[in-house]
Amino acid sequence: MEQSLANIDQVRAKIHNVFDNKVRMRAIMTAADYTEEAFSDIYVRLAYCRDEPALERIDESCILSDAEGAFRASLP
Question: Domain residues for 30?
């Protein structure tokens, strides 16, 4: 009985962990949606200041890729 309760607690902890990660990802993506236009302007300026080539190729996919990378780096 105690073993099954321990297993239930482990499963519950895993579910909470997955839920927390999904909520965190949803919050980040919502914030990205709200700030996409403003961030696009800033992103191009930052790239220009860093002398990055091919500024014309910087688009939403580049910004989204950077946001996803930052999210993955924030995970434990």
Answer: 2-74
Tokens of 75: 């995970």
> Rounded to two decimals, what is the model's pTM?
0.34
Reported as a single tens digit per residue, the pLDDT across 28-64 is 787 777 776 666 666 666 666 655 555 555 555 666 6
User: How many distinct structural domains can be found in the chain?
Assistant: 1
All residues at 6 or more sequence positions from 21 whose CB lies less than 8 Å from its CB, including other chains: 75
Q: How far is CA 61 from CA 15, 17, 34, 67, 68, in A?
A: 31, 28, 16, 10, 10
Distances (CA, A) of 25 to 41, 49, 58, 65, 76: 23, 29, 23, 13, 13
What residue type is assigned to position 27 of the chain?
A
